[in-house]
Amino acid sequence: MAMVHWPVELQHGQVGLRPLRAGDGSEWAAARQRNVSWLRPWDATQPPGADDGARTFRAMARDWNRQARYGRMLPFVITYGGAAGAGVRSKWPLVGQLTVSGITYGSARWANLGYWVDEQYAGRGIVPTAVAMAADHCWFTLGLHRIEVAIRPENKASLRVVEKLGFRYEGERPRFLHIDGDWRDHRIFALNLEEVGPGLVSRLT
């Protein structure tokens, strides 16, 4: 497999995507702690009997970045420059996470995209912009053909994101992922390269 250009940073307006770093642990943990009840219904969990082993945030970040350099995933954090006093891009606060996972090349050339955002920043168009940037990067820089998003039917905020960006609904997968302590049904949305024209960022503008 060809090596992917990593690290990479993307920006559109006041929304940025940059690699998850080992030094992000405190800010990431604080955001997750603030949003425990907001994120719990949508958080991935380990099914009974699974044991991935405990590891530190630093070890996780290093592992994910190593996988990114080999083209297996893209572990981004979402940053936002619209907060008070956040004029310098390097100081933009971490407001969420976006991960492109399951990257497959060969005859498939597809990936799955997932995300979360801090509740206090929800409703500002941050997530649609982040998804648009990441998807465009996958299509036009990495040469992928298909981007897929799996969403629980109850997650109305996330459903609005894919609706806004024009993702195509492909149907429901029963008990598809282990979320919030059980196997949960998900709706599958996808877009292929031929369907996006100049890209999703252009749809926002």
UniProtKB/TrEMBL annotation:
UniProt entry keywords in alphabetical sequence: Acyltransferase, Transferase
Domain N-acetyltransferase: from-to ranges: 15-194
Family matches, as SUPFAM superfamilies: Acyl-CoA N-acyltransferases (Nat)
InterPro entries found in the cross-reference section: Acyl_CoA_acyltransferase, GNAT_dom, N-acetyltransferase
TM annotation in the entry: none
Domain of life: Bacteria
Family annotation (PROSITE patterns): GNAT
Keyword DNA damage carried by entry: no
Protein family: Belongs to the acetyltransferase family. RimJ subfamily.
Protein name: GNAT family protein
Species for this entry: Kribbella hippodromi
